[in-house]
Amino acid sequence: VSLNLIMLGAPGAGKGTQAERIARERGIPKISTGDILREAVAAGTELGRRVKATMEQGQLVSDELMIAIVRDRLAREDARRGFVLDGFPRTVAQALSLDEIMRGRDPLIVADLAVAEADLVRRLANRLVCGSCGTNAVVDAAGNAPKSCQQCGGPLVQRKDDNEAVVRERLQVYQRQTKPLLDFYRSRPTFREVDGAQSPERVAADLSAAVDSALKQITSTQGAGR
Ligand code: AP5
Fold it and tell me: N or C: more exposed end of the chain, with fewer CB within 10 A?
C-alpha cells in the first residue's frame, strides 16, 4: 500500500515540520504548496508574479490554479509510490478535486494537527526562515535562534506573511475556508487527529503511529474486498 498522506492544520500547526520528517523517514516526496508558491515568487516566474500579493495578504490563491499545480505534481513518477501533501487541500473544492485525482490509487490518509490558537500566534511570530533555502531556523530551549541557516548558511529572515496582522488574517481564512475540511474528512476510516501541541518529537511519534494504524486499516479493507 502506498502512503498517500495529507497534513491538515492551521497556520503554524507544524505541518511543514512534520511533513518533512515523515517524508524523509518513509522515502517519499514532501509536496508543499506553500513552498512551491514561495519558490515561484523568489524566482520571479509568471506564477510567482500572479500569487505574490495574495500570499502577502494571507489570502488563498485560487482553487483553479492550486488544483492544476497539484494535479501535475502528483502525476510525476516519484509521487506514484506515495507522497506527503502539506498545505493542500485547503478548501472543500480542492478536496473534491483531490478525490478525483486519486481515483484508482490507494486511499488518502488524513492527519489533522490540533494546536490552540494562542500557541499558533506565538509560533509564527517567532519563526525565522532561511532567505535562501526556506528551511525553518531551529530555536533552542532558551528561545535563541542561530545567526544563519544550519542547512546552507543563508541569512535568517521573517516570512513576509508572519507579521501579526497577516497572521490574524491567515487564522481567520483558516477558520472560514479550511476548517470545514475536518467535517469533510472526519467520517473516513483513515482520518486521524494528532495532538500538535506537544514537542516536535512527540508529535512525530504520534503521527507515525497514526499513519501506521491507518495503513493497517487500508490493508485489511483491501484484503476483505479481494
Ligand atoms: P503555507 O506555506 O502552507 O502556510 P501555512 O498553512 O500558513 O502554514 P505554515 O507554513 O505557516 O505553518 P506549518 O503548519 O507548516 O508550521 P511549521 O511546521 O512551519 O501557505 C502560505 C500561503 O500560500 C497561504 O497563505 C496561501 O496564500 C498560499 N497557499 C498555499 N497552499 C495553498 C492552497 N492549497 N490553496 C490556496 N492558497 C495556498 O511550524 C511553524 C513554527 O512552529 C516553526 O517555527 C516551527 O519550528 C515551530 N514548530 C513546529 N512544530 C512545533 C512544536 N511541536 N512545538 C513548538 N514549535 C513548533
Answer: C
